[in-house]
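<tokenise_the_fold>
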Amino acid sequence: MGITEIGEMKGPPPRVSIIVPCYNEQDNVQDCVDQIAKVFWAAQIPYEILVVNDGSTDKTLGRAHFLLRSNSLVRVIDLGENCGKAVALREGVRRARGDVVAFFDADLQYTPTDLVTMISRLDEGHDFVNGTRDYNGYGASRTAFSRLYNRVVRLLFRVDLRDSNCGIKVLRREAATDTIFNYGLPLIVPLLKIRGFESTEVPVMLHERKKGESKYFQDGQFLGGSKNIRDITYHSIMLLSLLAHAPFESMRQTKGLGKGRNLVMSLP
């Protein structure tokens, strides 16, 4: 994987690093970055935006490069090939300079103002703030799959959060290590709980995608299409893997790799 980065941040680190993974989002990436910049400028929150191109085959990379001319707070990371959203976020986390790390999808289904609200919740003592979708932008089948998966996660890991796979998240730097992706994106929430981090959730608006195509669920296809079936299989395996490794993940805290609030987690 030949990773390249364009855009050099000078001066003190920003408060927030916003990571925007992109795969074939040529019609959305510019508007997405512009909306984030406008909201954070108005909120007077020092920020940087890391656009991570995940091997796009359209004009996403070129349009991301164009953003560098108009906003010096944008950095562009090109993975060189399609590695998946988890890898894109991981590489963004590795390069983030902020005390707070935020994940934000490029498809314009989320609203940057919700990010500002979520960041404010960190001041209440939380380490990790997760968005919870209203599902207005999803069809009935996709909503049913998502809610069923979340019920299973809540049952197995006793997690209070209702939407483990929401694409908008905010984490303190100490929680945002590259190892949080070891079991896939949907299991970041229970993994951080096992590691002893305090979390909460904030309702976020979910808009219908207006441009581009969903990279995961295909409406009208059996079980959401072949890629969604593969994802279901993969995440089911990862779920079982996290269950098996939960004692080890909890012990990471005693080695200084977690916050250490809950040294033991009992599982059903």
User: Anything to note?
Assistant: Residues 260-268 have pLDDT under 50 and may be disordered. The domain at 4-255 is CATH 3.90.550.10 (Spore Coat Polysaccharide Biosynthesis Protein SpsA; Chain A).
